[in-house]
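Quick note —
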Amino acid sequence: MDADGTLMTSDDALEQFRHFARERAFGRHVGSDRLIQTGLDALMAGVESPSLAMLAGLLRSEEPEAPELFEQVLEELGLLFHAPADPRAAKWAMAHWIAGQIADGSLDPAAGTHLIWADVAYDLGYPEELQPLVSCAHALDGWEESWGVSVEELKGEALEAAKQFLSKRSESETGNQPEGRSRDRDR
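Predicted structure written out below.
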């Protein structure tokens, strides 16, 4: 079952695997308990893989085995994901992945812009391309009721900033690439 208590479809389960594969590839911690639950959700949704039942059936004492089994299931399902080897390219790929989640509604704009601010922009030296998202993160992080603007309005601005950021990437991938930017793909 997913967060709202409805049965998960196999597509939902596979998307959860893709999500955790990217989180792990970008160096974010995903607990073994979550990896096991993802396996159980996928199994219950009808996903088939030789190692899936082993992952889903791990006991608490066997949690240290979960990351390796998770990777094995990803490989069996053709869902392995590796971040770019170049650290800067990996950070850009992470920024695009997070912005994509903001844009598609799967990640709260406040949480997403904060991740870009804290986990990406700093490491890249606060590049101009990320400035609108960082500004949204600052505004959402420090919001006060006295500002005369609602949190929802600020989240709307963050959503638009994420969409703009992604549209600029699309332009660069079609050949209208600004000078000095490298092409990095995360999908």
